[in-house]
Amino acid sequence: MSEFRESSGQTPARAPVAGTNAICRFRFGAAAALVIAFAAVLRLAFIGRFEVWLDEAYCFAVAKKPLSLIFADLAFDNGPPLYYIMLHYWMKVFGEGPAAIRSLSAVFSTGAVAVVVFWNTPWFSKTARLLAGFTLAITPLAIYYGQEARMYSPVVFFVLVSMVFLERGLRLGGFLNWALMALSTALGLYTSYVAIFLVPTGYIVTAIEYVATVHPEGLGKRFWNLFFAHVAAALLFSPWLPVFLRQPSAEAVQWIGPIWEKYDKTLLPLQSASLMTTGGAYYPRYLRNLYQGPERTSMVREATKEGREKSFSLKIASSVPSWLALSVMGLLSLFVLAAALRRQEPFPYRALLVAWVLLSFMVPIVMSYFRPMFVLGRYELTGVPAAAVLFGIGFSRQKRVPRAVCIAAAVLLFAYSWAYMYSWSETRGLGKKAGILRAAASPGDVVLCEAFEYAQAYYHVGPARDSVTWLTCPLDTIKHAAWIDYDRWLWPGWEMPRDAMYQAAAAALAEAIEKAPPGKAVIIVRPVGVGGWMAAMDGALRTPLVKAVDAGGVVADMEASKPQDGIVVLRRPQ
Question: Which CB contacts under 8 angstroms, 24+ apart, belong to 406-411?
Answer without folding.
Answer: 406/332, 406/335, 406/336, 407/131, 409/328, 409/332, 410/135, 410/138, 410/277, 410/278, 410/279, 410/332, 411/138, 411/278
